[in-house]
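Section handout 9: paired folding examples.
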Amino acid sequence: MSNERTLLVGVDLCEDVSQLTCFNPVTLEPENIGFNGDVDQCMIPTVLFYRRDTAEWTFGEEAFIWNKEKDGVLIKNLLQKASTEKLISIDGKDYEPQFLLERYLKRVLGLLKTIYPEATIRELVVTVREKNMILIQHLYQALQNLGISKLRASIQSHEQCFVTYAMNQPKELRVNDVALFDYDIDGLKYYQISVNRRTSPQTVVLNKRDFSDVLPFVPKGAEEAEDLPYMFESVLENALHKQIISTIYVTGPGFQGDWYKNALKKLCVGRRVFAGQNLYAKGAGYAAREAIGEGKLQSYLYLGDEMLPIEISMELFHQGEFHEYVLVEAGTAWYNATKTISFIPDDELEVEIQVKHVIGSQVERHFLTMDGLWNYKRKTRVELTVEFMDVHTCIVRLNDRGFGDLFPSSNRVWEKEIQIQARTMKKEET
């Protein structure tokens, strides 16, 4: 079928280089998509070039080539520019902050056509390192402008995609904890996944440690590079001391060359070790499959710092029966948890919202009273919106939308703030 929506796509969007993955329908694994279909060219520089004489745009390595050969403007730091509300001036013309992201993503996603010319995107996950809400909003707007709404796109952090990647690997690689060393321009950071198998669903937590003060980023060829192996070995000893870990991953531009390998061999005996630069991009690909309900992690629930440890629902009457309708699922990143539905109240002035905590199974009931709704003696449609200001603050809003031309809206709005109290989860003892 032409233009069938079948593609499950992941994009790792970084300030220096980005990567594109797509689920292979044969191997059922996310695979890198490179420039002109060349897997060896999967690291796509996050840059644009605007050509003055023809008003054309290009991206990636071609942008650097055009910058040498043609008259125009080379544009870097796309994520930084999109992390503010300021207009972006290019060659004397001002653009909205999301404009450059839209231009770049359009061309990156266009690479899919080289391998899947007749298919379109069913689900897209973009992963970013910086959890900047302005950037996330601009990313969603850029995707919307490309015709990809929130119904089939989401933005996730690197941390979330690491968990998704690791938990999609064979079971023997995650019998115990799983670790990651990420060494980028901000320095070295360490992440450790722990799974509590005594809960249902099994809960996954990610513990983090920042070693950037001990091991800051050292450019290749710098004098300090000679000390890198010893510094890294010290960090390894510190991070892995008394830890029961099955698998260790290393990623990031700092892990270039062979300088770190001897330390890993020395201190990681009995553990599987993998090094590579496509972990987050593949994690985003796995996340796209999870989003359509065909993944492998239904029995797991990731409870990271940005993930909601609660489920929000309400009771609705539909087709002659009462049903519990889930508005927000547990394990959703708070900035992706906005939900809007519409319903017709049946002589009811009160709406009940249930908040169920995954840890401890505690249920809270919150009520919104629509004072004055029936003063108008008419049918109406009520729009309910759930959104989060942060991981602890939920806003539930009701809007009287009226009932067609016969009963116009009263423009009344009712709102309630719900505080989400954190429940701690202890690491499972082994």
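Moving on to protein 2 of 2.
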Amino acid sequence: MPDHATIINLLLSGFDFIIIFLMIYSVLYFLRGTRSANVLFGVIALLLIATLAVNFFEKLTVLRYLLKDALIPSLGTAILVIFQPEFRRAFAQAGSLFVSNRTGKETIDQVVEAASQLAITRTGAIIVFERNIGLTDTTRSAVSLDARVDSLLLQSIFYPNSPLHDCAVVIGKNNRIVAAHAVLPLAEEDFFVNGKRLGTRHRAAAGISQETDAVAVVVSEETGLISIAKKGRLIRGLKPEELRFQLSMILLDHNSLWKRIGKTGEFKDFAEEDAAAGKDGEA
């Protein structure tokens, strides 16, 4: 029978393996479906090919030198440089798990009402909900506001002849409109659906949700479809009640850390919704 020390060593080894497995899984899960995933797989494939080559062919002395004395020692630094934006977003989103922010139900109702009316008139709009990661960098160059979230006010802001109708409206953590005419970062990856590229408005919504934990509601001016962006993915073609349900699930159900960690399966991939909606190339 194993002694006490052996059992402890086995448990520690198992715990060590689980930690490494979770770290690798988290990285792959975070990079899934992105251009960075292709870069990572390309780097791994090249290293594997180079390693097999120098092991089978002893005369490849230059490649062996580059691999062992140059590439591998500097691989850690290269990964940090190549995937710097991804690491920044991952750490920011991980830190946001331990801070709670609650959006009011009335705020959600007003946004849903505004989005439904804007969809009827096919008026383009982006409404961003600030969550735990601050959007100061985004709102700094925007037009500052301090107004209660109201459906009529949102419709007025996005009215085509309004000087603030371009770009996005930001709803702050205090459940008030804090900025309008906010310029959002575009998604790093081009969004394609059935071979056609999505427009700038949807890429901007996906971009802000990639870089932060913000949630963005988008109304297409071409089709009137309502979409929602979270973590760089889109659900498109939502009806008002479906939009209310999605926003409530994302913004209201923050009672515990474990519920927030376990919500990854609730948000469908944008490609599934796009195929169902059958609409492409929206602005």
